[in-house]
Design brief:
Layout (H helix, E strand, L loop, with lengths): L2 H4 L4 H7 L6 E3 L2 E4 L11 E3 L6 E3 L4 E3 L1 H9 L4 H12 L20 E8 L3 E2 L2 E2 L1 H8 L4 H4 L4 E7 L2 E12 L5 E7 L2 E7 L5 E3 L8 E4 L2 H11 L7 E4 L6 H8 L6 E5 L4 H16 L3 E4 L10 H8 L21
Parallel strand pairs: 14-15, 14-16, 16-17
Antiparallel strand pairs: 1-2, 2-3, 3-4, 4-5, 6-9, 7-8, 9-10, 10-11, 11-12, 13-15
Length: 323
């Protein structure tokens, strides 16, 4: 089996041959409990074509080889190919994948209320503010961009769910919600990218894959408000939509804060191609987090922060309100 052929193997089939069962499926995305670490809530997802993966718990992703290296340690590519052949069978035939666009007419989650983002609950930082601080993100700086929302699942209308997040261009919200002690990422309403615009049309654009990197940039680099346009993809699958939007804007400069991994690399190349073909200036800030998967991962490591949510006693630079 060739490397190029191995990369086309559907990862859901590969994982299920190893005994890992899909925990939930949303639209055309499958979620699993991570195959290389213990977790109670599934945070490991597959791309729509099932050939790439991303683990939100560790902020890493990639193709089938990246997954095998994560599961089996530092093994060679030939050994990885042998492992793949042993798992799927040496006579495995790569399936012909029919490209199909699934149109979701009704979102799974229904929005019921949108409110200003609250920094405090009583005299203590709100759970959402504590979560942001536990990732090294200043909740005060992020407050203007965030909203507190309420929603429910269309199949369980009586079960109210609360969350915080950012609005996207499709009118939905990209949110984090606390369930069973963990913070989960989901979309309420239709999926889309997010933009926050500066007053000057010709201002440079900064592009981030997700809210944590955006929040890290604001917290660490501290640009004056209104200096830049910001685009948050919310998923690398939104890259083409973001490019279609940029094509309609005045020529400017595009600065990326890319995430490492196959999906992130593809998004990065698409955006650079757009910039080159349309005579935009271009660059990236990848040098700021060399050796790490993304800017937030680097920032958390610098602050010696773990993945657990901070308490009011250990939230950096964010004190309980008195009086």
């Amino acid at each position: 089996m060739k490397i190029s052929e191995a990369k086309q193997i559907p990862l859901d089939e590969f994982l299920e041959n190893l005994g890992h069962v899909c925990v939930r499926e949303t639209s055309n995305t499958k979620w699993y409990n991570s195959p290389f670490r213990n977790e109670l809530t599934a945070s490991f997802k597959l791309s729509p074509d099932k050939t790439a993966w991303y683990d939100h718990g560790v902020g890493e992703g990639g193709n089938i080889f990246n997954l095998i290296f994560k599961m089996n340690g530092d093994i060679s590519v030939p050994d990885a190919l042998k492992f793949i052949e042993k798992t799927v069978g040496s006579g495995y035939t790569i399936p012909t994948i029919k490209q199909e666009i699934k149109r979701v007419t009704e979102p799974a989650y229904i929005l019921t209320a949108v409110n200003p983002f609250q920094l405090y609950k009583g005299r203590s930082p709100s759970p959402a503010a504590q979560y942001l601080s536990s990732r090294g993100i200043d909740p005060v700086i992020m407050q203007p961009y965030l909203r507190d929302i309420s929603f429910y699942h269309k199949d369980y209308p009586k079960q109210k769910i609360t969350a915080f997040g950012i609005e996207n261009t499709a009118g939905g919200y990209e949110v984090r919600t606390q369930r069973h002690g963990a913070w989960l990422k989901t979309c309420v309403g239709h999926k889309g990218f997010t933009h926050f615009l500066a007053e000057r049309p010709e201002a440079p654009y900064f592009v981030f894959e997700g809210m944590p990197d955006f929040g890290t940039f604001l917290s660490v680099d501290k640009p004056p408000k209104g200096t830049y346009h910001y685009i948050i993809l919310n998923s690398t699958s939104m890259t083409d939509q973001a490019i279609d939007y940029l094509k309609q804007q005045p020529r400017s400069t595009l600065i990326q804060c890319p995430q490492k991994g196959e999906a992130g690399d593809i998004a990065k190349e698409k955006l650079f191609k757009f910039a080159n073909e349309n005579s935009w200036g271009g660059g990236d800030i990848e040098y700021k987090f060399e050796g790490y998967g993304d800017y937030n991962e680097f920032h958390m490591a610098q602050l010696n922060l773990g993945k657990t949510v901070a308490t009011p006693q250990n939230v950096p630079n964010f004190k309980p309100r008195l009086g």
